[in-house]
UniProtKB/TrEMBL annotation:
Region described as Disordered: spans on this chain: 49-71, 103-173
UniProt organism field: Cladonia borealis
CDD domains in alphabetical order: GAL4
Gene Ontology MF annotations: DNA-binding transcription factor activity, RNA polymerase II-specific; transcription cis-regulatory region binding; zinc ion binding
UniProt name for this protein: Zn(2)-C6 fungal-type domain-containing protein
Position of the signal peptide: none
Length: 599
């Protein structure tokens, strides 16, 4: 009697992984794509199955239904048990917490131990499926936002290539991932590559049992993709930290990422900035940041026009996008349209006393003021913000001991000084001199009445014989450093823009040389504070000092060390300094050819 052998449904490799096989020979598509050996069963080999859970075969060799021998049934039923009728068509429902969370978020399940990693990646990230994925992988946020995968942006939004797909994740031994070396070493690309190859345990995307994790709420941005989780962590550990240079509560680094998990506008702003920063310091596709930026604008503009959403979160997103805007115009800062800076200014003008309301809104306000000061110095213009309507309350005699508040007061004095220095002025020289004297007195009052905590923990003057061309000034906290830097910046501008200065006379050049020495002294202190801090935020203020009076530095060794610092700002921190460096070299070259130092 001949036996008709039913063909197998697929290769052993696919069957063991519980995925569908296309039965292509000699290698199926899934095995080919994953680089696995495509094993097949020969029809001559007979398979034997043990009926471990078949109650109809419960009477084994023992002959006793109450005695189970090895290899016999695991579950037994009495002869008088009533069997419930089973319909021909069944639907199975998995109500585990993990699956409920996945369905609530509207996202495909995360790859686990028994899931085909290749199938997961091809389902979520394949460019061929992006059109379908866009409609399926979405959730709503208070009726405001849709959350499609940034990798599947429609052609109508922007021309973003398919290279938006995230990096491939390879399995490695679990361990802690340290971001401290991303933007401070020369081998940045190696650091980033190792991080991108880290395990997907970030933010709940784990290959182990999901019983340890609660399902995310329905209005959450979770679960993130591996790329999104990495970029969010990069923001939290790097960029967000230096944004909090005058905030001991670290709201930009801690509170903003937490809020972003429920606010797609804030999340896309963070992802856009982090990915653009990464593209500047490592080998990362810059089109990824363009995609996130477009999605953020698609949500932000309607929210601003309809006055929908949290004021602090909208302003935070706009300020983060301003930083994205600044590092985007790397080689041609003059093309900076300052669109997001203008948007932040317009937003601030509609609020009441942002500087005194506390919480995230106040922290973002001071971030905006620092951004506005930088842009004003670069373009030699007043601030976009109307400083007279911001209602910043400064009282040096209030007994205030919060050092962060005192640091912000120094920032505000610098903002007023920039507005005075590059403002329209007028023919009333007496009024201009009175304003100058008021600002000079206020900066001196800040220096004399500041808390004792602003005292440096170590000070040493510059020593050219030992190669110390800038003074060494150490402080215990970053806000002390930043506060002093803005104080020195205000002093530099006031010295350089004092009205009613004598333009002729026998003492003109002597007074001019004395003025230059005083300005350079403050500039050296500003740079020395940065070099001793070892942090990123003070470099931001050094660039401001260069924009204000960098050309006044005449010592060749100081010039060399300053240029090296500016180059590190560009290569390590993604801050665009190439044009600034070229301008400095040109100015210093002209200064060497002149018999006098031109001011």
């Amino acid at each position: 009697m001949s036996m008709n052998i039913k063909p197998l449904s697929g290769c052993f490799t696919c069957r063991l992984r519980h995925v569908k096989c296309d039965q292509n020979k000699p290698t199926c598509y899934r095995c080919y794509k994953a680089g696995r050996e495509c094993k097949r069963q020969s029809p001559k080999i007979q398979l034997r199955f043990k009926h471990g859970q078949n109650p109809s075969r419960r009477k084994g060799k023992s002959g006793n239904p109450n005695i189970r021998l090895r290899g016999e049934g695991l579950d037994f039923f009495r002869d008088d048990d009533v069997w419930t009728p089973v319909p021909r068509r069944l639907s199975f429902i998995d109500e585990t917490p993990t699956l409920i969370g996945i369905y609530s978020a509207g996202l495909p399940p995360s790859p686990g131990v028994d899931t085909d990693e290749t199938a997961y990646e091809s389902t979520r990230y394949s460019p061929l499926d992006q059109t379908d994925q866009t409609d399926q992988n979405t959730t709503t946020h208070d009726g405001l936002a849709m959350r499609p995968d940034p990798c599947s942006i429609s052609e109508g939004s922007a021309s973003v290539p398919n290279s938006l797909s995230p990096p491939q994740i390879t399995k490695q031994t679990r361990g802690s991932v340290d971001l401290d070396d991303i933007v401070v070493h020369d081998n940045v690309e190696e650091d980033v590559s190792s991080l991108l190859a880290a395990d997907q345990i970030l933010l709940g995307r784990s290959g182990e049992s999901d019983d340890f994790y609660h399902p995310p709420p329905s209005n959450s941005f979770l679960p993130l993709t591996s790329q999104e989780a990495f970029l969010l962590q990069l923001y939290r550990n790097k960029m967000g930290t230096w944004m909090d240079s005058t905030d001991s509560e670290r709201r930009m680094a801690v509170e903003v990422p937490e809020r972003a998990l429920k606010n797609p506008i804030l999340m896309y702003a963070i992802l856009a900035y982090s990915s653009r920063h990464l593209a500047r310091v490592a080998d990362f596709d810059c089109s990824v940041s363009d995609g996130y930026h477009i999605k953020c604008l698609e949500l932000l503009i309607p929210a601003l026009s309809r006055d929908v959403g949290d004021d602090a979160e909208l302003l935070a997103a706009t300020c983060i996008l301003r930083l994205f805007e600044q590092i985007t115009v790397r080689h041609s800062p003059m093309t900076d349209q300052e669109s997001h800076l203008t948007g932040s200014s317009a937003f601030i003008s509609t609020q009441e006393s942002c500087a005194n309301r506390g919480g995230l809104l106040e922290a973002v306000f001071w971030l905006f003021i620092r951004e506005d000061i930088y842009a004003a110095l670069y373009n030699q213009r007043p601030l976009k913000a109307d400083i007279w309507s911001c209602n910043v309350e400064i009282n040096f005699d209030s007994g205030e001991t919060d050092c962060c508040k005192w640091a912000n007061w120094a920032v505000w004095l610098a903002a007023e000084t920039v507005t005075f220095s590059f403002g329209p002025g007028g023919d009333d020289k007496a009024a201009a001199l009175a304003d100058w004297e008021r600002l000079w007195s206020r900066t001196e009052e800040w220096r004399l009445k500041k808390p004792s905590a602003f005292a440096p923990i170590f000070v040493q003057d510059r020593d050219t014989s030992s190669g110390k061309y800038f003074p060494q000034i150490y402080h215990s906290q970053i806000w002390h450093v930043v506060g002093w830097q803005y104080y020195h910046l205000a002093k530099m501008l006031l010295l350089a823009h004092k009205p009613a200065r004598d333009r002729v006379g026998l003492r003109f050049w002597r007074d001019l040389q004395s003025l230059q020495d005083e300005v350079v002294r403050h500039f050296r202190a500003l740079v020395g504070l940065c070099l001793c801090s070892g942090q990123v935020a003070p470099r931001y203020q050094v660039c401001m000092g260069v924009l204000a009076c960098g050309s006044w530095l005449t010592d060749a060794n100081e010039q060399t060390e300053l240029l090296q610092l500016l180059e590190r700002c560009d290569s390590e921190n993604a801050w665009p300094t190439a044009t600034m460096i070229n301008d400095l070299k040109e100015e210093w070259g002209h200064a060497k050819q002149s018999p006098f130092q031109v001011i």
